[in-house]
Amino acid sequence: MTINSNDDHSLTRAGEDYLESIYRLALSSSEADKSVRSVDVAEQLEVSKASVNKALNQLKDMGMVIQNRYGRVTLTPEGEKYAKIVWRSHRALRAFLETDLGVEAEVADEEACNMEHVLSADTMARLIAYLEKQGVDID
Predict the structure, then answer these.
(1) Which residue among 25, 58, 88, 127 has its CA within the 20 to 30 Å range from the CA of 135?
(2) Could you tell me which residues come within 8 angstroms of residue 99 by beta carbon, excluding any fewer than 6 positions away?
(3) 108 Cβ contact list (under 8 Å, min separation 6)
(4) Same domain, 67 and 85
(5) Of 2-11, 97-106, 114-123, 124-133, the least confident
(6) 96 contacts 78 by C-beta, under 8 angstroms
């Protein structure tokens, strides 16, 4: 089931959350291959390890992640591309909520997480262009 009927979102909301979490953890990873531990994903998303394992199996079947024999997870090029889009959308929405609407940082972060899954690519591109015109750098 996709989140958005316009097919901008090919993964479920949960799938997007897992990819985003893996991506964010990989950004701060000291591993050369940018692999992350599934237990760290579980901790960041506040879900069980069993939930992470189930999601990882689905993401592996879709070609979004690979998991080595030691259990570390790495995004495939396709998974990384998708995760970057979700994370950029999150940052853009959070920036808009905070700077333009004056929403408190913690609330803006939580609400951006909800909104990033349902806006179309066109709407997101327009929001990012708007923010750039305002001088807000989300990258």
Answers:
(1) 25
(2) 131, 134, 136
(3) 93, 94, 97, 98
(4) no
(5) 2-11
(6) no
Instruction: Check whether 14 has a pLDDT greater than 80.
Output: yes
Asked if residue 86 and residue 72 are part of one domain, the reply reads no
Q: Is residue 51 part of a domain?
A: yes
Q: In terms of Cα–Cα distance, which of 130, 132, 105, 135 is closest to 119? A: 130
- Judge whether 8 lies within some domain: no
Rounded CA separation 62/41 (Å): 18
Q: Judge if 33 and 51 occupy the same domain.
A: yes
pLDDT grade, residue 3 (50/70/90)? very low
Number of domains observed in the structure of the chain: 2
Q: Which amino acid is at 56?
A: L
Structure tokens at 93: 């929405």
In a domain, 7, yes or no: no
pLDDT score at 8: 62
CATH classification at residue 94: 1.10.60
pLDDT single digits (tens) 118-133: 999 999 999 999 999 9
Query: What's the predicted TM-score (pTM) here?
Result: 0.86
